[in-house]
Amino acid sequence: MISATDVISWVTGFYSCPKAPSSWTSEGATIRTRKFMTNRLLCRKQMIVDVLHPGKATVAKTDVREKLARMYKTTPDVIFCFGFKTKFGGGKTTGFGLIYDSLDFAKKFEPKYRLIRHGVAEKLQRAGRKQRKERKNRQKKVRGTKKAKVGTGKKK
Prior knowledge:
alpha+beta, five-stranded antiparallel sheet, ribonucleoprotein, Ribosomal_eS24_CS, structural constituent of ribosome
């Protein structure tokens, strides 16, 4: 007959994630991770990151990325940290961390603005507001495929 403890151990063993390092301490700040989860669909590991920094300023995201890279034995370029909020009174900051399997998967799944902040992608430079309006108004005057020719601008 199966006991209740056998069922509980089987269920917890079935749902548990692989053991991950949980904390890292240096320079007066401790970094802890919790709710670690491997997301195979998005090719990443995701976790909540707690930074304990009593009596000190908030730790920079680049430092958090480097320390997480050492904890999880990977490079900082595949780690994305965001959503950090400092608790009232300071001393503890909580945010979210993602560790992708490769930079290609990060480029595929991460939002463009985060890739730009990370330095992986370039920000698109748009034309000025007045130029866009003038182009739009020039295009209104013609029909069909001629719009593309008019939209490029005047030949000098």
